[in-house]
Design a protein that fits this description.
The complex is a heterodimer of chains A (306) and B (440). Chain A is mainly alpha-helical and 306 residues long. Chain A has 14 helices and no strands. The radius of gyration of chain A is 27 Å and the shape is globular. Chain A starts with 7 loop residues before the first helix and ends with a helix. Chain B is α/β, with parallel strands linked by helices and 440 residues long. Chain B has helices spanning 2-41, 62-75, 86-98, 113-116, 123-127, 162-168, 182-196, 208-217, 235-247, 255-260, 264-269, 282-289, 323-336, 339-349, 367-379, 389-399, 409-417, 423-438; strands at residues 49-54, 78-83, 105-108, 139-140, 146-154, 156-161, 200-204, 224-225, 231-232, 273-279, 295-298, 311-318. In chain B, the strands form three sheets. A six-stranded mixed beta sheet of chain B has the order 2-1-3-12-5-4. Residues 1-41 of chain B have low confidence and may be disordered. Classes of the chains: A mainly alpha (306), B alpha/beta (440). The A-B interface holds A 143-146, 162, 164-165, 167, 170, 250-251, 253-257, 267, 271-273 and B 199-200, 250, 254-256, 259-262, 266-267, 270, 272, 405-406, 411, 414-420, 433, 437.
Chain lengths: 306, 440
């Protein structure tokens, strides 16, 4: 018996009607986001890019000056100082935060650890604090003149350490303060990743006689590589954009030695009224961040494809 | 109530809403027009009714309330006192000027070019010899028109830890007639620090105003413009600034205040610092907050110039809205600055007067606070004219449509104290910053 072919044309909508049905609805649904994104990101970014080619001061008219701002920026020693200090901060902060948060995550998920839930909350609380509060708290501890740490050092007969007036020590205090504040967030990402590693891997490794360190380096670390990539990427971008902790802790000091790039942009643009010049510096920072993200993405893909 | 609402909406329906839309638009436009007229009626008063804008923290407007009530009692003129939050005050005045609805009288934080041409000339009040208004602190334009008279003045002041001085057996002056030099003061403070094992001799606000005061006292003019409007610094300023930078040795003064923003007030209030160079506005706060030692205000050093950096706590202005209201506003301001009335204002508000010889009685319980106010009231008339230079310069910049948005002093001297540059280079950069922002 031959089956009669169904009348396709009668039961199905034509390809053009189907396309319109499945393209129109998503477009309508994302329209609000597209409008908001365009209004609050694309438009300000375009304005910022335009300003970077002008001598705009924030008020009145401005003139197009071509690449002068960029040309001046690359000859500006203060910009290089801020950039090099920013890179140094990122180089110190990112590995420290990675190690501390990974250690904390391993500790709280360990079968042998007691009070893991409480520890998780304690580690997470600093991330809930405003960066300004973090800065003030650490200032109380590492205040050079009347801070808790110097008080203890002096009680034990030592000399006061110049936590604020020595540029390198001042930077280190911010590195520790920021790591303390960001540990909770990175730890949460690591906890989720570690819990997704199949237990059978560890059981098999145990049967083969692998110890905890061997298991960590041969199973845990490779298994959580994508999460590690995200943590490093986010921390690098955050470090390059750091501002409030520095301002609250040492005001970018001593002097201007710890003025990072964002503070440099803020001071140039809003305090000295050089909006065009500050816009050029902002675009240089954006390009650096994009380069960092692309390089990390390429490295991550190569590692995954091995 | 709900039923009524439902019925109404049913009756209107969609067509009803459409019909009502033009009516609503007309009604709204009418309401806006009326409210605009209403806004105008708040200002531009008559000889019997004036509008007076101020901006103070609620509760600290006692002096203004008192004088307004007294004025109504004496003259029958009703002054409508409007206390506007500080954050929106400048904008509100700006908008009021554009809408032609300025108040008749106001106490303002600063002048604004948009309304400065509407100000009443207060020369007659300022020049009235009976009032004894300190001419150094008046806001004048280039033609000599007095645009504003300070409602009160503030100045830099030296606070000492009296307990530490007494413990060390070191004396200090109490009268501005017999004050000390900065050299004498630093020597005394260092001695006190060494004898009492205090941490620092002095903390110094990270403030251009404090530095200006110190430079004036050492005979300099700080950053000063010539007739062409170009800024420079004199040799006495260079010497004074170099001396100041040298004091930041973590013994006489802590480096962390000017380099990293540490809080000098908190340091002084800890009781472990010999002296604090700050503003007279600290007095009411110290009267309540310092309990663990005795403090005192001492005369500002004079080396050899007896000076300070004096600013107005507020500027009293009158607006020329119409001839009737303008005359009434002038009459009120003349009455206000009569010594007896002005004294009432200063006492109730805790103001340092711009007039000499008032001797106000303040309601402080603290003896140190009472003594401090007495000292400043005796000192201010003695200050050299340079003390009002910066305040006057700010007025001139405003009249030219310029403003010193960012005084480079803090950043540049912070770098000098941190060893990133010399004090002379810092001054060069500060002068360049002034020339760029308000020069010419």
């Amino acid at each position: 018996m031959t089956k009669r072919a169904p009348d396709v044309s009668a039961s199905r909508p034509s390809p053009s009607r189907r396309r319109s049905k499945y393209t129109l609805a998503p477009l309508v649904l994302i329209a609000a986001n597209v409008v908001l994104f365009s209004l609050f990101f694309v438009w300000p970014a375009v304005i910022g890019l335009v300003y970077s080619f002008t001598n705009y001061t924030g008020v009145g008219a401005f003139q197009y000056i071509g690449l002068d701002n960029y040309h001046n920026l690359f000859g500006d020693s203060t910009f290089y100082d801020a950039l090099s200090r920013t890179l140094l901060y990122a180089v110190l902060f990112v590995p420290l935060n990675f190690v501390v948060s990974l250690l904390a995550a391993n500790l709280v998920v360990s079968k042998n650890a007691k009070g893991g839930s409480v520890a998780r909350v304690i580690f997470f609380i600093p991330w809930l604090l405003s960066p300004i509060v973090v800065g003030v708290l650490w200032r109380w501890m590492f205040g050079e003149n009347f801070g808790l740490v110097n008080y203890v050092i002096e009680k034990f007969g030592g000399g006061a350490v110049p936590w604020q007036s020595d540029a390198d020590l001042s930077l280190l205090v911010v590195v520790f303060a920021a790591s303390w504040a960001w540990t909770g967030f990175s730890m949460l990402l690591f906890i989720a990743a570690i819990k997704n590693v199949p237990v059978s891997y560890y059981e098999a490794a145990s049967l083969d006689g692998a110890g905890p360190w061997r298991q960590f380096f041969s199973i845990t670390l490779p298994s959580i590589a994508p999460t590690s990539f995200i943590v490093i990427l986010l921390n690098t971008i955050n470090a390059m954009k750091e501002y409030p902790v520095f301002v609250a802790l040492n005001n970018g000091g001593p002097g201007t030695s710890n003025n990072l790039l964002v503070q440099y942009i803020y001071e140039t643009g809003f305090k000295r009224g050089q909006i065009g010049y500050a816009s050029a510096a902002s675009f240089v920072l954006m390009l650096i961040l994009m380069a960092v993200a692309i390089v990390q993405l390429i490295v991550n893909r190569r590692v995954e494809n091995r | 109530m709900t039923t009524v609402g439902v019925r109404r909406s049913r009756r209107l329906g969609r067509g009803g809403m459409r019909r009502l839309a033009p009516l609503a638009a007309v009604a709204t436009a009418g309401a806006l027009l009326l409210s605009a007229c209403g806004g105008g009626s708040d200002s531009g008063g008559t000889s019997k009714s004036l509008t007076f804008w101020i901006s103070t923290v609620p509760g600290q407007d006692a002096g203004w309330k008192k004088v307004v009530a007294q004025y109504k009692k004496e003259t029958g003129v009703d002054l409508k006192l409007v206390n506007i939050p500080y954050d929106g005050y400048t904008t509100k005045l700006h908008n009021a000027a554009q809408a032609n609805s300025l108040p008749d009288v106001a106490a303002v934080p600063a002048l604004d070019p948009i309304w400065s041409n509407k100000l009443i000339d207060l020369k007659a009040i300022a020049n009235n010899a009976t009032n004894k208004i300190n001419a150094n602190f008046l806001a004048k334009d280039s033609s000599g028109k007095v645009l504003a008279i300070p409602s009160d003045v503030t100045a830099s002041g030296m606070f000492i830890n009296k307990t530490l001085f007494e413990k060390a057996g070191v004396s200090f002056p109490t009268s501005p007639a017999k004050t000390w030099t900065w050299t004498d003061f630093i020597k005394a403070a260092d001695t006190v620090r060494e004898k009492t094992k205090a941490k620092y001799s002095l903390t110094f606000d990270q403030s251009p105003s404090r530095l200006r005061a110190m430079v004036y006292e050492m005979g300099g003019q700080y950053v000063h413009a010539d007739d062409s409007g170009k800024f420079s610094v004199d040799e006495a300023t260079k010497k004074a600034v170099n001396t100041f930078v040298g004091w930041n040795d973590d013994k006489t003064m802590p480096k962390s205040v000017w380099t990293s923003g540490a809080d000098p007030s908190a340091m002084f209030q800890s009781g472990d610092v010999v002296a604090y160079w700050s503003g007279v506005w600290q007095v009411p706060a110290f009267a309540d907050s310092i309990k663990n030692f005795e403090w005192a205000s001492v005369p500002t050093p004079a080396q050899p110039v007896q000076a300070s950096d004096v600013n107005s706590g507020g500027l009293t202005v009158g607006f020329n809205n119409n001839a009737d209201a303008s005359a009434a506003a002038t009459k009120f301001l003349s009455w206000l600055y009569e010594p007896a009335h002005y004294k009432t204002l200063c006492e109730a508000s805790g103001f340092l007067p711009v007039e000499s010889g008032l001797n106000p009685t303040y309601p402080f319980k603290s003896e140190a606070a009472q003594a401090a106010f007495k000292l400043y009231n005796e000192s201010i008339p003695l200050y050299a004219p340079i003390s009002g230079y910066f305040s006057g310069a700010q007025t001139n910049w405003v009249l030219k449509g310029k403003s010193l948005t960012e005084d480079p002093t803090k950043t540049e001297l912070g770098k000098a104290i941190n060893g990133q540059q010399t004090a002379d280079k810092a001054l060069e950069n500060i002068v360049a910053g002034y020339n760029q922002q308000v020069g010419g």
